[in-house]
Amino acid sequence: MTTREEALRFGMTFPDVYQDTPFHDANWVLVRCRKNKKAFLWTYEYEGSMRINIKVDPEWREFWRQTYASVIPGYHQNKEHWNTVILDGSIPDQEIRRMIAESYDLVLGGKKKNNR
């Protein structure tokens, strides 16, 4: 997964979600849950690379950051609960999808594992 379109397309597969541009800036496109209006997927370009911000269980935060150099603390977000993923092709698609699915589950208030 290397493009905003791929990330958004996957994010929109979850039940009862919608895209939003809350900053009136086309660079920032979010996917939110209708139920609570919380964003679980932020997409944006920064320093020449496409990036996503996703919520992360603090127990897994360091695992992702240590496993992949392209996973860093969340840009402009709480570093304990959010990771930024640089979509440079270095992380297998299934791992990015897993991180997005876990973010979705977390913003809905649960820690259940999503087998997407």
Explain this structure:
28% of the residues lie in helices and 28% in strands. It is α+β, with helices and mostly antiparallel strands and 116 residues long. Strands 1-2-3-4-6-5 form a 6-stranded antiparallel β-sheet, with helices on one face. It has one domain: Aspartate Aminotransferase, domain 1 (Alpha-Beta Complex). The longest helix has 15 residues. It contains 3 helices and 6 strands, in the order H-E-E-E-E-H-E-E-H.
By secondary-structure content and strand pairing, the structural class works out as: alpha+beta
Domain unit count: 1
The amount of beta strand, in percent, is 25-35%
Query: SSE order, as H and E?
Result: HEEEEHEEH
CATH topology: Aspartate Aminotransferase, domain 1
Oligomer: single chain
Mean pLDDT: 93
Distance between the termini: 15 Å
Topology, number of strands: 6
Rg value: 13 Å
Q: Major sheet, described briefly?
A: 6 strands, antiparallel
Distinct helical segment count: 3
CATH C-level label: Alpha Beta
CATH architecture: Alpha-Beta Complex
Instruction: Estimate percent helicity.
Output: 25-40%
Output the strand order for the largest sheet: 1-2-3-4-6-5
* Shape descriptor: globular
Low-pLDDT runs of 5+ residues are 112-116
